[in-house]
Structures are given as structure tokens and as C-alpha cells.
Predict the structure.
Amino acid sequence: MGAGVRLVVFDMAGTTVHDDDLVLECFVAAAGHVGLRVTRDELNARMGQSKRAVFDELARRQAGPGRDAEARALGDRGYEAFCAVLEGAYAKAGVAPIEGAGEVFAWLRSQGTRVALNTGFYRRVTDVIVEGLRWRDAVDAVVCVDDVREGRPAPYMIHEAMQRCGVHGVDEVVVVGDTPSDMLAGRNAGARAVVGVTSGSHTASTLRRCPSTHVLGSVRELPGVIERLGRLTR
């Protein structure tokens, strides 16, 4: 059924991992703690990107031109605050999967399609989530922003997942995520399909304005997309 799709690369928070705005609230709390002037909507627009890069960008904007040392210090403080808040939030709330995510992983692998996770989180939090959900053996690769030179919307995490899974052709890859950054990374990677899901931080209308090929309510609906893509290659 999955002929023609050899790899599906999934985002984590909001796509396969239940989020309920937890990451956004941690962004808001960390920015407020260090005095970064940014709106909730601006932070939400940056969901899916490297968290380190987001704080560096916002700090440079606030510090202004020619104040590089001040910007670096502010970015460092913001990112350190975010890490502390995020790790505390996961320790308190635990982690839970999006309903049906594990079953979709198993179905894909039963069809001979490899499964990879990718995320804008750093390695320590990535491992906390994967181990907490017992997904280490449920997927074929886990790529985080620490593994590549640049996070989303750059395509490098997707390409790293391809390398780890032995998949050579971008036309054999489907990318799934819940943010504009996920959609852009999929497009930039040249993926055959870029699937947005509304279980996370953005609405269907927002994701349709991005370079998505499909927009679904949840990853539970993905097998139908994979089957249709497979039939197109026969």
C-alpha cells in the first residue's frame, strides 16, 4: 500500500506528541522572564524552529544594530530560561502521544515504509520525550536540531533522517508537521508530499497558505494519504 513512499518524517510536539500549547507557554514565560519584548502571536509563528535560533533572532531585534554583545547575552539568557521552564514543564506534566500516532508508525513499518522523528528541540528534551513514550524501537531515526547545522525551515533534519534511513530520493519522502516551519522545511527538502496536521499550534487555513500538499486533522488520517500516493506510482 505504501509503494513509492519509503520514509515518513514526523515532527514531534503538536504532531505526534500531545502539546496543548505547552511549548508556546514555555516560550512566553522565558521571554517574559528575561525582558524580551515579543507577542504571543510572534512566538507562535516561530513554533517548529530551532529554539536557540528563535531567542537569538529576537534578542538581535531588541538590542538593535551594532550591539552584538548585548544581543548574545540576552539570547543566551532567554534560551537558558526556556530550557529550564520546558524541562520543568515536562517533568511535571509528563508526555503523551497524539492519539493514534503509535499505531500509524506501526502501520507504516508494516508496509515497508521507514519512520523518522524530527524536532526543533535540543537532544536532552528530545530524549526525555522519546524515552517517556517508549518510542525508541517504534521508529527508525530520531533527529533533533543539535544534529544539524541549521534547523527549520532549512531542510537538513529531513535530509539527515534520509541518510540515517538509507533513503536516497526526496520523491520517496513524506513530511508531516503542524507548523509553517515544518511545511517550509518539507518544501525545501523537495519532499514528495508535505502534510500539515491541525492537532498542534496552527489552523487548517494557516497551513493551507503554506507549501503543504495535504492538510489533515490528525496523523490518524495519514494512512489514507500514503495509500493514495502509493497507487499513483503503480
In short: The chain has a mean pLDDT of 94.
